[in-house]
Amino acid sequence: MRKLRDLIGRNLLFPALRLMRAQMRLVSNPLKLREAAARLDALGRPAPDVHVEPVIAGTAPASWVTVKGGRRDGVVLYLHGGAFIAETPMLHGALLARICRASRCRGLMPSYRLSPEHRYPAALDDCMAAYRWLLAQGHEAGRIVVAGDSAGGNLTLALLLRLRDEGLPLPAGAVALSPVTDLTFSGESVQRNDGVDDMFSADSMDGLVPVYLADRDLRTHPHVSPLFGDFTGLPPLLVIVGSTELLLDDSVRVAQRWPQATLLVWDGMPHVFVAFDFLPEAREATQRIGRFVRDCLALEAEPAAVAKAGAGVAPVRGVALPEGGKPHPPRRLGVMARLYLAIAVISGSMWLAVILWGMGPLLLLAHPLVWFAALSLGATWAVASFLFLRASFGARIGHRKPRS
């Protein structure tokens, strides 16, 4: 069942991300995008072994995330992504829960203030307050790892710089998933991967700046764009990013200068792919995060290194001709193959109809029931197509595996 789920998820994910990329270029209002994110997030549900406890961590609401079997003396302070404008507590809570399982820790996720109502430095101030609150609660800095994705990855690195600059004790380590580290967007990958990145387009990047910053001249401040900071004395850092991301170079350039950095680049993966647990690559990345956190908290972090790991595509198998070099005669489709083909054609047509007419130009604002119908029909099409190929041609579909 897991392989089937992986297949369906992979077939649905990338077209859905590309549709969202196109729609985000049409819906530039950050409040509308926030509403759309909230609607999608409302479809999620916490896993049965996850306990979520609301608290006030300093200046902002926060959630303690505890999983069965997790220890209470190690904490992952998780700073969620969302382009500084949105939060998805179900999506990021589920991601944090998986990290907690892998690291055998508990997690704290602050609900920091969002832009454009609260521009820089409001979000970073709240993250600082949450860290101070952990210290005041008796958690030692050496038993804390800070982690975050996208905009939260930016806040993770900025938080470490600010902690050091203000003379506070530093955490044991940090994890940044597809972090935004350069709000000048000077990385070559912004143009090189434009059109390849499944989630973002280059012409939409610069619009993030005035939403987050009241003063555009702050773009090169290290607490806004950590790439321009001095990383001397900072703890070990794990950076995970996809090779097709516009912001790939944001990760690469930070990792090249960070004294104790490990960089993992996954081939062909989208922005913050670790959040999509149906991808085998995401599960492998989560395990890597867990090992890194455990090493940091046990004071066993590996020496400084910048390593690349990715996902390789299984080689295409050749088709051998029968003895004598004569091809097999054409095969007639069996009854089950015809049935699967009919289901695939019907569900695929209905899927396109829902997307084109049911969702319309404001795809991100569509009602959750329309999204559910689209995803269900898409899943039916993917399963029927897979079964048709297997019944007709004995097709074997491989998947990506990470390589060290």
Describe this structure in words.
With 404 residues, the chain is of the alpha/beta class. Helices cover 42% and strands 14% of the residues. It contains eleven helices and ten strands. It has an eight-stranded mixed β-sheet, with helices on both faces. Helix 5 (151-165) links the parallel strand 5 (144-149) and strand 6. It is globular and about 70 Å long. The model is unreliable at 299-333 and 393-404 (pLDDT under 50).
Major sheet size, sense and barrel closure: 8 strands, mixed
Task: Give helix % range.
Answer: 40-55%
How many helices? The count is 11
SSE string, helices as H and strands as E: HHEEEHEHEHEHHEHEHEHHE
CATH architecture tag of the largest domain: 3-Layer(aba) Sandwich
Strand order of the largest sheet: 1-2-4-3-5-6-7-8
Q: Looking at the structure, what is the overall shape?
A: globular
Determine Rg (CA atoms, Å). Answer: 23 Å
The residue-averaged pLDDT reads 82
Derived structural class: alpha/beta
How large a portion of the residues is in β-strands, by DSSP E? 5-15%
Q: Distance between the terminal alpha carbons, to the nearest Å?
A: 27 Å
What name goes with the CATH superfamily of the largest domain? Alpha/Beta hydrolase fold, catalytic domain
The CATH class of the largest domain is Alpha Beta
CATH topology label of the largest domain: Rossmann fold
Task: Give the number of domains.
Answer: 2
